[in-house]
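Recall the central idea of this unit: under ordinary conditions, the amino acid sequence of a chain determines the structure it adopts. In this exercise we apply that idea directly, starting from the sequence alone.
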Amino acid sequence: MNSKYEKELMASIWSPEIKDSPLKFVNFIFEWDKPGTPLHNFKGPRAWQKKILLDLERAIARNQGDITPEMFRQAVASGRGIGKSALVSWLILWMLSTRLGSTTIVTANTEQQLRSRTWAELGKWLTLAINSHWFAKTATTIRPAPWFDEALRKDLKIDTGYYYAQAQLWSEESPDAFAGVHSNYGILLIMDEASGIPGSIYSVSEGFFTEPTPDRFWFAFSNPRRNSGPFYESFHSAKSYWNTEQIDSRTVEGTDKELFNKMLEQYGEESSVARVEVMGEFPRFDDDTVIGMDLIRSAIDRDVALTGSEPIVWGLDVARQGSDQSALCIRQGNHILEIRTYNSMDLMQLCGAIKNKYDDEQTNNRPQEILIDVIGIGAGVVDRLAEQNLPVRGINVAESPASRKNYLNLRAELWFAVRDWLAGRDVRIPNDDGLVTELASPIYKYTSTGKIKIESKEEMRKRGIKSPDKADALALTMGSSAAAFSVKDSFMGYNFKKPLKSKIYRVG
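Accordingly, the structure predicted from this sequence is:
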């Protein structure tokens, strides 16, 4: 601490010129292009890395002297092999070296990813840093070395109790366990492979940034594997809150262009593999998503004529929990005529609203069938509306499907019926953001017996995704024998000109 070299090193790193310029910091602490070192023949950060570092520098400059400093959020969607882990390492070392007393949290989806990738890469760059002796690294943390810690506390009066960088796993079952870190000296949160991190973890992460310090930084890096969830929304509905970059691996200097060209040749340029692993673009559909976003977007306000002779069918999804809303979908053939929701209604209030809606319609605009999920309080809604002579039919989506060899239950069959309906390319849906998001949200898997199972609403909530009430209401309309249809390319080759269930429990 008392050596001339050490004082000069500290003075340089803590000078405003380097302290508040992450790019100059990276250029300073690593001996780029030095013969006999791992950095020989490396001139410095790549172009995309420089841009991110400069964007961060500009954000720091904007906060200078601001009594209400803004938090910096950066989301990066990219292909593989672009040097993402290197940039993550530099950001961690910059935060530790220049924001004394600050806290850095790094999280990813698996312990292996954190230990063998992120933390291993960080260890490599720490070794190469000219101030590496300031810190002590373990398998999951970096803290100030004992001598450095003592100097900070005694000479600079800095509280080092929360001065560290830590690799921390999140738990979907206990999201609150991920929260609780606060620091007046600054917070850096880095999410690696953020596309797989659920909404509940994003929500609790907001709690990291409650202190009004100017040094609040949130980075989310990922291959864009899913077209739903918070990482996806940071590029779409939540884009106003985030700085975003999408990076094609082929445009980055030093990457294996031959490998990427082979991937494009093997899988096709429009494949999910090419889009995600090479182009850094979100897939047109998730490999395990029931309905691809391309099908949904192409059906919005499509110029398709309505055939007035086709029957009208209503699908009613009844709310089961306080956070859910009851949803009514009105479909006539290839058109969704209306989607409406009902909030905070008890059983009798909902029945009254549906009865009033039915009575208000002209006779030729009334539904031939009203299909209602009877799970939970839906059965009571069916009974009450049947008493009032409405053409209701109760459907238990948990029962066996018509195509028993393909689907686990009727819910899965109905959702894939929606998929096939959209795939017909002659349908139209309204430009309803809620409906669009809900249709693209559920994922499916195969059971041990090879049957398709769609995740439940409860499973979706665990991923931080709201209940697909509107989309479920649309799916219910597919169970109507009055509104059967057929398409050339059904997912399972099923003929929907037949009712999905010939013996569905009928009320009234």
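The chain is about 35% helix and 15% strand.
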